[in-house]
Amino acid sequence: MRFFLLLLLISFFGCSSDNGTIKIKGSDTEVNLAVLLAEQYYFENSGLLVSVSGGGSGLGIASLLNGNADIANSSRSIKYSELELFENRKIEIDSFVFAQDAIAFVVSEKSSLDSISTETISKILTGEFQNWSSLTGLNMPITIYGRQSNSGTYDYVKEILKINFSPHAMQMNGNAQIIEALKVDASGFGYVSAGYVLDGNSKGLKILPVYHGGSTAISPLDVEAIASGEYFFQRPLFQYYRKVDYQKIKPFLEFEQSKTGAKIIQQSGYYPVDLR
Amino acid sequence: MNTVKREQIDSLLKFAFKGAGLLTITLLGGIFFMLFANSILFFLNVPPLDFFTGSQWDPENHYSIFPLLVSTFWVALGSMLIAVPLGIFSAAYLSEMAPKKLQIVLKPIIEMLAAIPSVAIGFLGIVLVGPGLAQIFGIQNGLNALNGSILLAVMALPTIVTISEDAINAVPKSHREASLALGANKWETLFKVTIPAAFPGLIAAVMLGLGRALGETMTVLMATGNSAAIPKGFLDSVRTITATIAIEMGEVPYQTTHYYSLFAIAAILFLITLAVNFTGEFFANRLRKFHS
């Protein structure tokens, strides 16, 4: 028994000596991308090990606070209440935008809608327009498919349009489920990360180009428009870290900005921050 | 083997078994404590009256469990309306009418339903039951309470069938023989003698099935649409307590009112499920006493 305890203790201490490891935690949206980046990074410089786990943006930020992670991935910007917790413990943090995500508004391919204005999007999402009749002439109720109330995507759409979502909006658990639902529902209107409607995935769906005010309609799949920041619904993906750790994680952050990093980001359906 | 060694083994094993038992109780106590400690922190920020009487679950503005409770209630009620008759009649058929050979084959097959992962059943809800319901009722999509109810009924069936079958089997043969001897036919015997005699056991079966339906998460999360408005019927999208916890726990900022609120609704669900399971156990015990 005593011997066993000793073993256990040793293994605990074994875990804590981690100068050669960067631990990334949080955000289920970004976890696949982070894993790909970490793998490629290790392939190129095997000196520093990067371990990645998901578990939600909230968990990532809490782990950063408790010292269980060096980088917290977050698909939403940090909340004021979370910043307070860091201040209370006198931990200084900084953020790094490692990629961008474009949000696509999607309808069934049976819909006659060809593009949409930000104003109309607001009216649909708040529940002001409850029927397609004023938009496409079809007398059919609008079913909104969105994300759960604390996903980064939900937060972003809510904040940029300055709206409150209709309580009748369906809250789906992830982008893939929204897409599945929209494929079979001709009355659906939904929003997903553009990465989920690339090429093969958009069968049976129509991705609406969006215009704001008098501008021309831009598709969320238009790489150049997003690089120049013209698409209305593009949001940064954050990585938060403790300021004291900057030197340790710097090589990895630099790798994310490199050409290889940018390529991986693009292949995963996101957009690199600095394309020009 | 000498006595000393025997006694040593004896006390060692006693210690091990006691440890295992205590560990289980400690775990339960720990979970209980965590749920309620966090719930208390929640109620320090939000008055209980608002929590139980409000009409909106809109974290950071309104915390009201009411729409979630109504949703949970609709889904569970629907699943029981489907699963109870189906389960009890299957059990009656299995134990009273089916030939022995068929019974040996059928029972394991029904029990196998319990082995299907809930995420697989939820997926069927999205690709099969949902579109089917949309077509039958002429609505745009099938992500609603009825969809959840049908899937939960399938998941609760094995529990209900197994326990009901045990209950019906446990009715002494002399009851049936007496009934048949008095001139009652097979059906009269089943409905007027066997099922009433097995009644406490059937209630236990229903309660344990209900407990299963109340606690199920993944299936309802996938199949019911999760819109936060108070549902008005079976064809409205609902959002159960379990689904709310599952979708919000991942992204919630830790140690905030929203975070504590999830523990508070979990505690309420825990109490409901506990009450249902206790009722089930109570009737199951009565059945045991009745037959011993």
* Principal-axis shape of chain A: globular
How far apart are the termini of chain B?
40 Å
How many helices of chain B in DSSP terms?
12
Q: Helical content of chain A, roughly?
A: 25-40%
Low-confidence stretches of chain A: 1-17
Which CATH first-tier class of the largest domain in chain B would you pick?
Mainly Alpha
Using the coordinates shown, work out and report the CATH topology of the largest domain in chain B: MetI-like fold
- Low confidence ranges of chain B: none
What summary fits the major beta sheet of chain B? 2 strands, antiparallel
> What is the CATH third-level topology name of the largest domain in chain A?
D-Maltodextrin-Binding Protein, domain 2
Task: Describe the oligomeric state of these chains in a short phrase.
Answer: heterodimer
Termini Cα gap of chain A: 62 Å
Number of strands of chain A: 11
CATH architecture of the largest domain in chain B: Orthogonal Bundle
Going by CATH, the homologous superfamily of the largest domain in chain A would be Periplasmic binding protein-like II
Q: Please list the strands of the largest sheet of chain B in the order they lie side by side.
A: 1-2
Helix proportion range of chain B: over 70%
Q: What string gives the helices and strands of chain B in order?
A: HHEEHHHHHHHHHH
Percentage of residues in DSSP E strands of chain B: under 5%
Beta strands of chain B, count: 2
